[in-house]
Amino acid sequence: MTISRKNDHLDIVLSGRATSTVSAGFERFVFEHVALPETNMDEIELGTEFLRKHISAPLLVSSMTGGPERAEFINANLATACEELGIAFAVGSQRVAIEADGIAGLSSQLRKLAPTIPLMGNFGAAQLNLGYGYDQAMRAVEMVGADALIIHLNPLQEAVQPEGDRNWRGLLTRIEQLARALTVPLAVKEVGSGISGRLARQLVDCGVTIIDVAGAGGTSWAAVEAGRARTPMQAEIARAFIGWGQPTADAIAEVREACPDAFIIGSGGIRDGVDAAKAIRLGADLVGQAAATLEAATLSAEAVIDHFRAIIMQMKITCFCTGSSDLAALRSARLRRVDGAASQLVGPATSRSMP
Question: Does 240 show up as a binding residue in the annotation?
Fold first, then answer.
């Protein structure tokens, strides 16, 4: 049943019927154009450090999933592309692989395809109330040779899914226990509704190293579950929440304010390299894309490479036209919020630490 559900999820996302009715919010911000950049675009440096490894740009292929055969093909394309580009890769949920002894396209083969890049394992927080703990976490890490582990938060999806796991009592304590025990950094991410500044602060205080806000504006898992509902009533319940969540742009800024030293990933509705640059400027250290990459990932590694090369070039042009020679300069570029008739200059994002 779990494998069938994962395949349903992929089909619905690929069909275009899974987008949130909430905007990610980046259109409310504009960079001040610098007509005389005084920099050489060919020398702009987007490289940064993540999980003690150098990456060529602050980009992450965010978690995607599916049934075994499709996941194997998709993950191989993504791993190959990320290695070629020198960017980070987070695998989809490893629950099926853990419980079925290594199936679902998640194995040491991924690390062989991507030997030098940051690679992140992943399973859901709800599993921590269903018997998962340190042993399963280390299995997820060792299965793919991961540099860090993601625990994903998807309470809305579980709530509207007929077979969802709805007992979330005590999970913050379990996350803290895992964070203190693991030998690799622990990341926590939402799946499309955002993480608040208050929760991010609690997670960081519990030992979580990386926060992926995964805000509203991209894939809506309520829309996905409405699309696979078995009855009209189930679909009606889920559809009411398609617009649920905090826009990604707002979530990034709020989490950065609450956690000045945390490592923050901004994902959820990142359309292009301009949005990615805005996410960095608002306080993200890394920018993730999932659904926007999925179609390319179902074709070939070359299609994924072409997709991200366009993103990287768009980021470089944004840096050039803001007079930013590198990411540090981009974080101080002049940015205005343009809600309504007035515009307001946004202050520079605060400093952060590297995991």
Answer: no
Question: Helices marked H in the chain — which ranges?
Answer: 2-15, 68-85, 95-99, 108-113, 134-144, 155-160, 171-181, 197-205, 221-227, 232-239, 248-258, 273-282, 291-297, 301-320, 327-330
- Please state, in angstroms and rounded to a whole number, the distance separating the CA atoms of residues 38 and 321: 10
Within a domain: residue 120?
A: yes
Mean pLDDT, residues 259-273: 97
Cβ atoms 287, 280 nearer than 8 A:
yes
Q: Does 77 belong to an annotated binding site?
A: no
Check pLDDT > 90 for residue 255.
Answer: yes
Is 316 one of the annotated binding-site residues? no
Instruction: Flag whether 295 is marked binding.
Output: no
CA atoms of 24 and 27, how far apart (whole Å): 8
269 assigned binding-site residue: yes
Is residue 121 annotated as involved in ligand binding? no
**Residue type (1 letter), 239:** R
Is 298 within the bounds of a domain? yes
288 is in an annotated binding site: no
Phi and psi torsions of 90, nearest 5°: -115, 125
**Is residue 256 marked as binding?**
no
139 annotated to a ligand binding site: no
On whether 309 is known to bind a ligand per the annotation, the reply is no
Dump pLDDT digits (tens) for 157-215. Answer: 999 998 889 999 999 999 999 999 999 999 999 999 999 999 999 999 999 999 999 99
Q: Are 49 and 329 in contact (CB under 8 A)?
A: no
Question: How far is CA 283 from each of CA 24, 254, 277, 349, rounded to the nearest angstrom?
Answer: 15, 9, 10, 5
Q: Which residues pair with 124 in a beta bridge?
A: 152
CATH of residue 56's domain is 3.20.20.70
Longest dimension (CA), the chain: 61
53 is in an annotated binding site: no
What's the number of domains the chain is made of? 1
Is-above-0.85 flag for pTM?
A: yes
Q: For residue range 100-158, what is the model confidence (pLDDT) as tens digits?
A: 765 556 788 899 999 999 999 999 999 999 999 999 999 999 999 999 999 999 999 99
pLDDT at residue number 352:
62
Domain hosting residue 188, numbered range: 2-346
